[in-house]
Amino acid sequence: MFLFSSTRSAWIWLILRLYLGYEWLKSGVHKITSDAWTGSNAGAAVQGFVTGALEKSAIGKDVPGWYASFLESVVLPNAKLFSYMVAYGELLVGLGLILGLLTGIAAFFGGLMNASFLFAGTVSMNPLFFILATWIVLAWKVAGWYGLDRWALPLLGTPWSRQRSTDEE
């Protein structure tokens, strides 16, 4: 399919990548420079976020019970760790998308964070970002063509290098 396999569609992915990457980078920088995320009060923002999600779940609104259990038993006790993971994860996703480096992987982890935010009852821009990330994951072969993937992926053996058979060597 043209959109997902032709390098002629790479300019479309470049536009989407830069937009989504900028949004992730902006959000990550904001969190990294925030005391409640990575400063002396690290974890406070995650605790507040999780508390809000648990309140929504308690009244049966927007947060599935199984996810509320995960938030309460895994995320809340490790709020400081999750705080750093989210802040630096957002930064790395943004950089990966903007630079076009391991674009599919960056988009996957961005989509995973969007899904996590959606399960926690936060809609905002998350549905749009999840859809864009999913499309970029599907277009991983060409989404980073105008970026570092153009050189990095062939070094990793995919997708533009010719497969060598054992009888050619």
Tell me about this structure.
This protein has nine helices and no strands. The longest helix is centred in the first third of the chain and has 23 residues, at 10-32. It is elongated and about 50 Å long. The two termini are 32 Å apart. With 169 residues, it is mostly helical. The chain has helices at 2-5, 10-32, 44-58, 65-75, 79-99, 103-119, 126-138, 140-143, 149-155.
Which bin fits the share of residues in helices?
A: 55-70%
Strand content: under 5%
The strand count comes to 0
Distance between the termini: 32 Å
Mean pLDDT: 92
- For this structure, the quaternary state is single chain
Separate helix tally? 9
Judging from the principal axes of the Cα atoms, what is the shape? Answer: elongated
One letter per element, helices H and strands E, the order comes to HHHHHHHHH
Short précis:
The protein is mainly α and 169 residues long. 68% of the residues lie in helices and 0% in strands.
Compile the SSE list and pairings.
Elements: H1 2-5, H2 10-32, H3 44-58, H4 65-75, H5 79-99, H6 103-119, H7 126-138, H8 140-143, H9 149-155
